[in-house]
Specification:
about 375 residues; 15 helices
Length: about 375
């Protein structure tokens, strides 16, 4: 039976987080006033995306400090977009995705400054080993919040109640109250990045219609909506309005995107594998709508304040849109724990019809007209 190694491999973070917690309890590192703070957050893309408001909130409250981040390689360009971040380090992820392995010109750091405080949110084994011998100062971990919310998650799943959102959980890690942060308060972009986005003519305003970013593929089959349904849905939307469909994703999504595009009887555009995650944020800032699966790009659209329709696969739902204008289609009722880890014959996402997706998208467009 095929299992989801993304989530199973991530379980290797638990002992490393526990070791940080024990180090905080039973070791006494000398106090340092270096002014440096390190936040370790080596997790999946979607999880990092929804943590960004809490990270920015912490940086704003500690403007006199230099706040560094330790993330997985694919998220380096994303982390560098957070206003106020001093330096971004990378370490191999716990999960098995190729894009989150150290490589492609990015090397794991071997030299860190002296820190007066270290906050461990998510810790891959590689991140833990990279920090051996580093002066970490006072250590704070997410272990108490993770343990408390983990127990509540199981109970709420049994009682069919919505769990605490991962976005809120991250604010809780820092002892803060969740708040909405607009993109202009969260991110900073360079002139070179803006110039690159401008080279894509199909992203510019024109008579070709509203710009709709589309993400059609996921690393886990139980989260995928059938390709033929994507073809039918995009065809029906094309007939219902003036839209430009622009595919986004990583190189791993390219085969899926090309198949769907080849079955459509109209022109589409692709940014799959052509832009970084940081550039995807900037792309979202100039587009009108997002349509995709419950995955990293969908979570980024929420952070970027881009109106969206999300096709959800299974519960528990830790990453719901926090803006009520956004739409989410779900047939799981918050269930689906087995579908998260194993491939089963029947999947909840297959119960979502083409007509339902089209209806929600058109409702989104009608309720949120763009100029």
């Amino acid at each position: 039976m095929q299992v989801n190694h993304d989530y199973l491999d991530a379980s290797s973070e638990i002992p490393k987080l526990a070791l940080f917690a024990l180090r905080a309890l039973f070791t006494s590192e000398p106090a340092h006033c270096s002014g440096n703070i390190l936040i370790i957050n080596t997790c999946l893309i979607g999880e990092f995306a929804v943590s960004m408001p809490a990270l920015r909130d912490f940086i704003q409250k500690n403007q006199e400090k230099k706040v560094d981040l330790l993330v997985v390689p694919s998220q380096k360009t994303l982390a560098e977009k957070i206003q106020g971040v001093h330096k971004v380090y990378v370490a191999k992820a716990a999960h098995s995705r190729s894009v989150d392995a150290v490589g492609h010109g990015q090397q794991a750091e071997t030299s860190f400054p002296v820190y007066e405080k270290t906050i461990a949110l998510r810790v891959s084994p590689a991140a833990y080993h990279a920090l051996r011998g580093v002066t970490l100062g006072k250590i704070q971990t997410s272990a108490p919040v993770m343990l408390h919310e983990g127990v509540r998650l199981v109970l709420r799943h049994i009682w069919r109640r919505a769990p605490m959102q991962y976005r809120e959980m991250n604010f809780a890690f820092f002892g803060s109250t969740p708040r909405v942060m607009l993109p202009q308060d969260l991110f900073v972009f360079t002139d070179a990045e803006r110039a690159k986005i401008e080279t894509f003519d199909f992203l510019q305003p024109s008579e070709k219609g509203k710009r709709v970013l589309v993400h059609t593929n996921a690393h886990w089959p139980m989260k995928c909506w059938e390709s033929e349904r994507w073809v039918a849905a995009l065809t029906k939307m094309h007939q219902s309005g003036n839209f430009r469909f622009i595919f986004v994703g990583t190189k791993d999504d390219e085969e899926n995107q090309k198949y769907i595009a080849s079955r459509l009887g109209f022109e589409t555009y692709s940014l799959v594998g052509k832009i970084t995650l940081g550039e995807l944020l900037l792309t979202m800032a100039v587009c009108d709508y997002f349509l995709g699966l419950d995955s990293g790009p969908s979570n980024l659209s929420h952070v970027a304040d881009l109106r969206s329709v999300t096709i959800a696969a299974f519960g528990p739902h830790l990453f719901l849109p926090w803006d009520r204008r956004d739409k989410m289609l779900d047939k799981s009722g918050g269930r689906g724990l087995l579908q998260m880890f194993f491939i089963l014959k029947k999947k909840f996402i297959s119960q979502i019809t083409v007509d339902e997706v089209c209806a929600e998208f058109m409702k989104l467009v009608q309720e949120n007209p763009t100029t």
